Amino acid sequence: MAVKLIFCVFFTSAIALTGCSLPDVYISSMTDNDYRISKDSRIAVFCNEEAGIEERNFHKLLVSELQRNGFNVTDPCNSEFVLLFTLDEKTRRIDTILPMTNRSHTYGSVGGYPYHGTTRSTTYVPYSYNYTVKKVYMWIHAVADLRKGKKITVWEGYIGADKEDFRNYPRECVSTLLKFFGENYQAHIALRPIRENQD
User: What are the chain's domains?
Assistant: First the structure.
């Protein structure tokens, strides 16, 4: 009974730990240090009037996450900077090999004595699957530059995530990128759960 109880506790704890883990995404943030931009800067988020449903929904999510993370989001008439974005995805076929372990058991007797033998072998089976990455590009221009006809990128950010991971954790993906706003950073990073009572 004690052994069963220990196994049950261990198994339950393992499920709890793995259930709390979130997937990794690729984050890229690049900043032009010649410009002074921060969360306090007045930023307008642009969305084309002819944008599709996915783009409009992402626009709402992006504005919400910017505000939740302390950014000063304003309307275009009062903005110092304008943030634009585009959504994309790419599917590629991945070829790999899966190892499969086989066991064979032999029973018999020698000289009246029974024996039992086990033989293990590994077979490698070719396996292919499609992998789709969701790509989110963001970039910021200074309004003063745009009025002069200059499209100089002040900041650019990128999120690369498994399509299903992005579908399940869009807020976490955006929030993770915004944590590195104003920095130069490129790496795979694990998403963190969003706590509503924390920034």
Answer: 22-92+131-190 (3.30.160.670), 96-126 (no CATH)
